[in-house]
Specification:
- The chain is α/β, with parallel strands linked by helices.
- The protein has two domains: 3-138, Rossmann fold; 153-330, 3-Layer(aba) Sandwich (Rossmann fold), CATH 3.40.50.
- It contains 13 helices and twelve strands.
- Strands 3-2-1-4-5-6 form a six-stranded parallel beta sheet, sandwiched between helices.
- Helix 3 (40-46) links the parallel strand 2 and strand 3 (54-57).
- The protein starts with a strand and ends in a 6-residue tail after the last helix.
- The structure holds iron/sulfur cluster (SF4).
- Iron/sulfur cluster is lined by residues 186, 273-274, 295, 297-298, 300, 302, 305-307, 309-311.
Length: 336
């Protein structure tokens, strides 16, 4: 029996996109142990799935803040892995696995990794769904569906939150709204427009909006909430997964929340701006994607817009509320 490590990516959306790869890995190595290694957030997100045996969260180093390659190598060494799949294309992830002396290190070609990997796969190359980018690493070009599971802890926290909301007369079904994006401000729809879109969507659908966001997005959400008040649910990822069952649709950017919703079969309305949808256009059956296709600058993949942010500003709140209505009425959707 081999111990097979999977070094998870960091962005939440990419972690979800890695779930078909993990499923395939388990199917092809039924006798071996699958060990996930990643951030505490990534591990929390994948808790509730039956596709892995152990999960180890890499803690930040107390002295350096972020964990260094040497800290990570020490950590990896104790896991006694026989092989490791490196899903991030970073030099540091390959360096840690090499210092930890993991005998088989599998990853894609990327700058300075040539002598660190024992099995080198082709560079990432042209845009295509990240689910496929990962599943190709195990020789599969048609990945199964993304998946996530809920946990008892998440359900318990969600039921406490629902109880608290009920005491204030607030009840499901909800319209989940996630206005933030870890990528950067270029991906974020302007606050005033978002508040208007939420207001119109609530009026048209009769749903109770609730805001979701990471702690670092609190200021942004407070700004939207100050224009259109609705509860801000400071939910952990496990609680958020459980709370999504109380929602009829999600309105979000091209962000991690979208992928979580897609994995849980919650219809989504997604506002695309500076990023190329070809990287994330998987599990589209329940997605309404809004994007200005006529802009020559898009996709720019810049974190800050160097011009007028037209890719976001030119999506109107009315269009969004139309899309939310369609999403909630049909359940299964179209793509604009
Ligand atoms: S440069 Fe264009 S695509 Fe990039 S953020 Fe600005 S408006 Fe959007």
């Amino acid at each position: 029996m081999d111990r097979i490590g999977v070094r998870l990516p960091n962005p939440v959306g990419d972690v979800v996109a890695a779930t078909p790869f993990i499923r395939l890995l388990k199917q092809r190595h039924p006798e071996d142990r699958i060990v996930l290694i990643g951030s505490a957030k990534a591990i929390e997100l994948l808790d509730g799935l039956d596709t892995w045996h152990e999960a180890e969260a890499i803690e930040d180093s107390p002295s350096h803040g972020k964990s260094s390659s040497f800290d990570e190598a020490t950590f990896l060494k104790h896991l006694l892995l026989d092989q490791i799949y490196l899903l991030p294309n970073s030099f540091s992830s390959a360096l840690s696995a090499t210092i930890a002396r993991i005998p088989v290190r599998i990853g894609r070609r990327a700058p300075f990794r040539r002598f660190l990997l024992t099995r080198r796969l082709p560079k990432v190359g042209k845009p295509r769904p990240m689910t496929r980018v990962y599943s190709e690493m195990i020789g599969e070009v048609q990945p199964p569906k993304i998946e996530l599971g809920v946990t008892e802890r998440g359900d318990r926290l969600a039921s406490e939150t629902l109880k608290g909301l009920a005491e204030h007369g607030i009840h499901p079904p909800f319209l989940a709204v996630a206005p933030g994006a870890a990528f950067g401000p270029s991906k974020v729809y302007p606050c005033e427009l978002m508040a208007k879109a939420v207001q119109l969507s609530a009026k048209k659908t009769g749903l109770q909006p609730v805001y979701f966001g990471a702690p670092e997005e609190s200021e942004l959400i407070r700004s939207v909430k100050s224009i259109y008040p609705a509860p801000f649910l400071h939910a952990s990822l496990s609680e958020m997964k459980s709370l999504f069952r109380e929602c009829k649709a999600l309105l979000s950017m091209d962000s991690g929340a979208r992928h979580i919703a897609a994995a849980l079969n919650l219809p989504q309305v997604i506002l695309y701006g500076p990023t190329d949808p070809r990287w994330t256009n998987f599990e589209q059956e329940m997605t309404v994607a809004l994007r200005r296709k006529d802009l020559s600058c898009s996709p720019c993949h810049k974190k800050q817009c160097p011009t007028d942010h037209a890719c976001m500003k030119e999506i109107s709140p009315e269009e969004i509320s139309e899309a939310v209505t369609t999403a909630t009425q049909k359940g299964k959707i179209l793509s604009f």
